[in-house]
From TrEMBL:
Classification via Gene3D superfamilies: 1.10.287.130, Histidine kinase-like ATPase, C-terminal domain, PAS domain
UniProt KW keywords: Coiled coil, Kinase, Phosphoprotein, Transferase
Protein's UniProt name: histidine kinase
EC number assigned by the record: 2.7.13.3
SMART domains xrefs: HATPase_c, HisKA, PAC, PAS
Species annotation: Rhizobium puerariae
Domain PAS: 1-75, 363-436, 492-569
Disulfide bond in keyword set: no
Claim: Coiled coil is one of the keywords in the record: yes
Enzyme class name: transferase
Chemical reaction(s) catalysed: ATP + protein L-histidine = ADP + protein N-phospho-L-histidine
Coiled coil (UniProt feature): 615-642
Length: 860
């Protein structure tokens, strides 16, 4: 009786969850016992706390929850003891056990288990009698349902364990315990439990021997206990029944009869007049689902004939008209000679399990659908790498089925991997399979159309509870666009790099603090230095570099300007001497500016360095030419001055003339006045000397202007004049337009002097346009006019104000002017046989024109 109750209790407290641990079923009795509901169990109390904390003792919850979470992760069996809060408000120890349900592929689809209240408290009996709709409830509860109190305290664990073992392992358990009698004494009883029911019988301790086979028949044979046995059977969870060797029902619990609304007679009636064993249909088959009825009959008939256990699942027609899944089991009882004398069996309501199973299958189907609809290529292999599964997208996208990726020997063929990537992929995969490290590999993967696309494949091992790898799960994602974009980026970077490297300049980059981080190849070659070469000198890389490559005389200013730019972010620009790899210092112009990010912060300095050594030389040349010109200018000025000086020479000469005639008069007078003549002669000598002095002074002044007439090409002189003024013109934003007839051969002329004329006229033109608002153009034209060359310098200035005076020496309208330019120019031109004059321009400006004689070939 006790055992029966224990089993009832066990089967009563079953539960099932889905793969995520959400309860999908808990037997109503358990819910009532713990005063909870599915919703409450499944609710989330907070982020980390599950609803079932409400029914677990606070001190036990954490350990239980941790064990549960671990089981969910590993798939290990759940087996935890903890105190549980009953509906009555008291705590009692309970053991909760559970195990996963897996599908064919080994995936966990759900969990099922039981909760056994280990204390088996007396309240349990009371609760059952009151709350369960029991056909026997009208009997005094204590008559039928004895509590664990009736079991001797020492024997209680034995009873519980036997009941639990029978339930979990399905192995019948036979044991004995001391049962409390009405008079307060204990009596040994033997009990037997099987999954689904239990029974206990009184035995004589002297007779009861463990090795003696216990049979149903003998138990029923015991006087007085037969009633108790029958009562026990009636309390079985589900229906208990017995049939004779021909399949005729000899017993069925009232519960069972009520639930299917059939009496023993109804069960036994022959539906087609033929005995059951000879293939006839029996009344009970009417109470089973038409689809199951035939096979139920057949299998039972076979069992009756062979003596094999009968086990069958079928749908039973309930009194209320609904079909409910049952599992029926029966085994024969034999007499002492081993002859079958009857069968006893049970019918368990497994509808809940069937429905749970169906629900799990549905979930599995949904999961499968999910796996097939996610836009990822999913596959799995066995622990040894044998392909086990590919999802639908995998086959659709790669065009490969599971067979296509399996080699003849069963291993993974990697047939979808590009041949060039296959060796590496196989190596990595084998490595993962042997070591268990996650697999991650990028390769080109075959596409159904025949192309290949870059794919990243990752796989992780699935392990069982002891850590052994059961399967590998992999997913391949298309990263082709990413890879090609990266490739394009790299290409553009390479392009840019090439651009920087081939620019005819020395290029470098530095960090915001000035530390050099990049030098173009040209710069590295120019300096003969790599970035790191100046490291380790005990100073920053910037200082190390500057100290090494900058001319010592320029170093201080370079450093100061660098520091200024780095501090302020202002561009850096400086000309200085830079040490080339061969130790030669060359002039360079360095410019650097800051590169900023979106927030305006400096992220880098980019610099460029140009070798201007040749330019500097050209500048020197220019200065020298200018010096020459200045000297020529001076010489020409003196030439002009000499004209006025001639006037000075004239005076002593006139005096000499006058004194000479006077002297002649004194000598020719009667008598000649020698004394006066003598005096006059002295004056003559004096005047002649002073004239000679003037001449020699002038000579000395002219000694530099050696009048070399050797040039014949006017164009060269014009171009040189232009070059001399180019910088100045640029500064004043004046454009110089030069036009010239080619092949003009002149009578040999002094290039320096003619150049000076040109420079004078051009500079005057530029001066005249200094205040002109725009259109500052200076035209220089040279063309033939008869047997002369006519050279014009035309400006767009304000025109000549004093045309009568401008050619006079020392006439000027300029603050800094000398007023000698035009006078000298005219004397030079005239000394070359030409003429110089000014003309008026329309609408504004002046044109200065001069002519020079052409070298006209003489007639032979
Ligand atoms: P300077 O240039 O030193 O004044 P110049 O003999 O070259 O001496 O010129 C004399 C003067 O002639 C100038 O001060 C200026 O008034 C006038 N002049 C020369 N060239 C021009 C010109 N292109 N347009 C207007 N005035 C000019």
């Amino acid at each position: 009786m006790q055992a029966a109750k224990v089993v009832e209790r066990i089967t009563g407290n079953a539960w099932a969850t889905d793969a995520d641990g959400n309860f999908i079923y808990v037997t109503p009795a358990a819910l009532a016992f713990f005063g909870t509901s599915l919703e409450s169990l499944n609710s989330q109390l907070d982020e980390n706390t599950l609803g079932w904390r409400r029914v677990i003792h606070p001190e036990d919850y954490d350990a239980a929850a941790a064990a549960w979470r671990r089981c969910m992760q590993t798939g290990g069996h759940y087996n935890v003891e903890h105190r549980m809060l009953r509906a009555t408000g008291s705590y009692g120890w309970a053991r909760s056990t559970g195990q996963p349900i897996r599908d064919g592929a080994g995936t966990i689809t759900g969990w099922y288990g039981t909760v056994i209240d280990m204390a088996l408290p007396p309240q349990m009996g009371e609760y059952r009698a009151e709350d369960i709709d029991d056909p026997l409830a009208d009997r005094p509860a204590r008559d039928v349902l004895q509590s664990m109190d009736a079991v001797h305290p020492h024997d209680r664990p034995t009873v519980e364990q036997a009941a639990a073992r029978a339930f979990f392992h399905g192995i019948p358990q036979v044991s004995s315990y001391r049962q409390l009698q009405a008079d307060g004494s204990y009596r040994w009883v033997e009990f037997r439990v099987e999954p689904g029911y239990g029974i206990s019988v009184h035995v004589d301790p002297a007779v009861a021997r463990q090795d003696e086979p216990w049979t149903m028949a003998s138990s029923f044979g015991e006087t007085g206990d037969a009633v108790q046995a029958a009562l026990a059977i009636e309390k079985l969870y589900g229906g208990a029944w017995a049939i004779d060797a021909t399949g005729q029902f000899t017993y069925a619990t009232p519960t069972a009869q009520t639930s299917i609304a059939m009496t023993l007679e109804d069960l036994n009636v022959l539906l087609d007049g033929k005995p059951f064993l000879e293939g006839g249909r029996q009344g009970w088959q009417r109470g089973t689902h038409p689809d199951d009825s035939e096979r139920a009959g057949e299998t039972l008939r076979r069992a009756l004939k062979t003596g094999e256990h009968w086990n069958f699942e079928y749908r039973v027609l309930r009194a209320n008209g609904a079909y409910v899944w049952h599992r029926a089991a029966a085994r024969p009882t034999r007499d002492e000679q081993g002859r079958i004398i009857g069968w006893y069996g049970t019918a368990l309501d497994i509808d809940v399990y069937k429905r749970t199973e169906a629900a799990l299958r549905e979930r599995e189907r949904q999961l499968q659908q999910l796996i097939d609809t996610v836009p990822a290529l999913i596959w799995s292999t066995m622990a040894d790498g044998t392909p086990a599964y590919v999802n639908k997208p995998f086959t659709e996208v790669t065009g490969a089925t599971i067979e296509d990726i399996t080699a003849p020997d069963g291993s993974a063929s990697l047939g979808v991997v590009h041949p060039e990537d296959r060796v590496a992929a196989r190596e990595a995969f084998l490595h993962s399979v042997t070591t268990g490290v996650p697999y991650i590999q990028r390769y080109r993967q075959h596409r159904a159309g025949g192309s290949y696309r870059w794919t990243e494949t990752r796989a992780e091992p699935l392990r069982d509870e002891v850590g052994t790898i059961v399967q590998w799960y992999g997913v391949s994602s298309d990263i082709h666009d990413l890879i090609t974009t990266q490739e394009a980026l790299r290409e553009s970077e390479r392009h840019l790099q090439q651009l920087v490297e081939t620019l005819p300049a020395l290029i470098y980059c530095s960090l915001p603090d000035g530390k050099p981080i990049y030098r173009s190849q040209r710069l590295r070659q120019y300096l003969g230095l790599n970035l790191e070469d100046t490291d380790g000198l005990g100073k920053s890389r910037l200082d190390g570099t500057l100290d090494t490559v900058i001319h010592p005389d320029d170093l201080a200013v370079v450093k100061e300007r660098y520091a200024h730019s780095l501090a302020t972010g202002e561009p850096y620009a400086l000309r200085h001497r830079l040490r080339r790899f061969d130790g030669v210092y060359r002039w360079v112009e360095t410019r650097a500016s800051a590169m900023r990010n979106g927030d305006g912060e400096i992220v880098q300095w980019n610099g460029i360095c140009l070798d201007i050594e040749d330019q500097v030389h050209a500048q020197d040349e220019l200065s020298r030419a200018q010096e020459n010109l200045a000297r020529a200018n001076q010489a020409a000025s003196l030439a002009e001055l000499s004209a006025s000086i001639a006037h000075e020479v004239n005076q002593p000469l006139s005096a000499v003339m006058n004194y000479s005639s006077a002297c002649q008069r004194w000598l020719t007078a009667e008598p000649p006045n020698i004394e006066r003549a003598q005096k006059t002669l002295e004056r003559i000598v004096h005047s002649a000397n002073s004239a000679a002095e003037v001449v020699s002074r002038i000579r000395a002044l002219f000694r530099q202007s050696t009048d070399k007439r050797d040039s014949v090409e006017l164009g060269a002189a014009v171009r040189e004049a232009r070059d001399l003024l180019a910088e100045e013109a640029g500064r004043q934003r004046i454009r110089m337009d030069i036009e010239g007839e080619s092949g003009l051969r002149l009578v040999p002329f002094d290039r320096v002097q003619i150049q000076q004329v040109l420079v004078n006229l051009m500079r005057n033109g530029m001066d005249a346009m200094a205040s002109a608002p725009n259109d500052r153009v200076l035209h220089i034209r040279a063309f033939r006019a008869g047997d002369m060359v006519r050279i014009e310098v035309r400006d767009k200035g304000r025109g000549v104000q004093f045309p009568d005076k401008i050619f006079e020496p020392f006439f000027t309208t300029k603050d800094q002017g000398m007023g000698m330019g035009l006078a000298i120019s005219r004397s030079i031109v005239e000394s070359h046989g030409g003429q110089l004059w000014a003309e008026k321009n329309e609408p504004c400006g002046a044109t200065f024109v001069f002519t020079l004689p052409l070298d006209v070939p003489k007639m032979p």
